[in-house]
TrEMBL record:
It is found in: Endoplasmic reticulum-Golgi intermediate compartment membrane. GO terms for cellular component: endomembrane system; endoplasmic reticulum-Golgi intermediate compartment membrane. The chain crosses the membrane at residues 289-315. This is Metallophosphoesterase 1.
Length: 325
């Protein structure tokens, strides 16, 4: 199962009613979705809204709420990828914030998760600024090492070089990239579907390293990994795009009613050579409100009828008596 951008509200910008309602809805939606019994749930970043600036106590509160909302049976694995709201945009990102995030989610940036012969590469896309900052250099080095490992696993043992033979063998399967920022695309103008960006937003050009990865970083990821599929978040809207005419990237929309009227998640069935994805929509928030309002109005009518009817009958009886006299 893939979902993204849950944006659990923080103590500074979050209103208690908004928090109560939207988080209750996400909890119910997630707990219901677990009935589909996914093997692994991947959350593609921006789990928290204020992880980028929250102090220790606020962070602990947010984490506690997350663990309650996204509780899951032991046989379901939960893997969380880092987003800019969790640790800040590149210039706000610090080792402290990154470590704090990794400690909670048992996630190390730039790591490989192999399940049932399928290789998932978890990318900290905030660290792909390409400016040589300490976190960025470390991230790039780890990604290059991972790409070597994956490339070695594609070679036949007898043809492989000594370096490859010394490496741990991975399943022979082209990897799937999971990250928060999408790879570079000019805008969302080519995205279609009922949950793609609204028409007035689609033509707004994306800013590199802010809305999407830079062209350079995107090209590097494709060169290093030759992925067969990329799943990303961040834009809060849906999009399917082909890179180099063959690599599918799916932008997973936000899971929160706060960011869209029709949130969704994706169920994937993935084998080492093939995959199939299916989107599952949550209810429209506007429809749920309409139902609440209609139910409220009906309740008022029933209450009025209940309290006013006896006096109506009393008045009617009085009149009929008067007439009789
Ligand atoms: Zn984001």
């Amino acid at each position: 199962m893939f979902l993204s951008d849950t944006h659990l509200l923080g103590e500074i910008k979050g209103h208690w009613l908004d928090k109560l309602r939207r988080e209750w809805q996400m909890e119910r939606a997630f707990q219901t979705a677990l009935l589909l019994q996914p093997d692994v749930v991947f959350i593609l970043g921006d789990v928290f809204d204020e992880g980028k600036w929250s102090r220790s106590q606020a962070w602990a509160d947010d984490v506690g709420r997350f663990q309650k909302m996204f509780r899951h049976p032991a046989e379901t694995e939960l893997v969380v990828i880092v987003g800019n709201h969790d640790i800040g945009f590149h210039y706000e990102m610090t080792t402290y914030k990154l470590k704090r995030f990794e400690k909670v989610f048992n996630f190390t940036s730039e790591m490989l998760v192999t399940r049932k012969g399928v290789n998932f590469v978890l990318v900290n896309s905030v660290a792909l600024e390409g400016d040589g900052c300490t976190i960025c250099s470390l991230a790039e080095a780890k990604l290059i090492e991972l790409s070597h490992k994956l490339n070695c696993s594609q070679q036949e043992q007898k043809h492989s070089n000594r370096r490859c033979r010394e490496m741990e063998q991975l399943p022979v399967s082209q990897p799937i990239l999971l990250q928060h920022y999408p790879l570079y695309r000019r805008s969302d103008s080519e995205c279609t579907g009922e949950d793609s960006a609204p028409p007035e937003e689609k033509t707004i050009p994306f800013k590199e390293k802010y809305d999407v990865l830079s062209q350079e970083a995107s090209q590097k990821l494709i060169w290093w990994f030759h992925p067969r599929l990329i799943l990303s978040g961040h834009t809060h809207s849906a999009c399917e795009i082909l890179h180099d005419g063959k690599i599918l990237e799916v932008s997973v929309p936000s899971f929160s009613w706060r960011n869209r009227n029709n949130p969704s998640f994706i169920m994937g069935s993935i084998t080492p050579t093939n995959f199939s994805l299916q989107k599952c929509f949550l209810p429209f928030e506007s429809r749920v409100f309409t139902i609440y309002c209609a139910a409220g109005a009906l309740l008022v009518v029933l209450l009025l009828a209940h309290f006013l009817m006896p006096s109506f009958y009393f008045a009617q009886r009085l009149i009929s008596k008067h007439k009789a006299v």
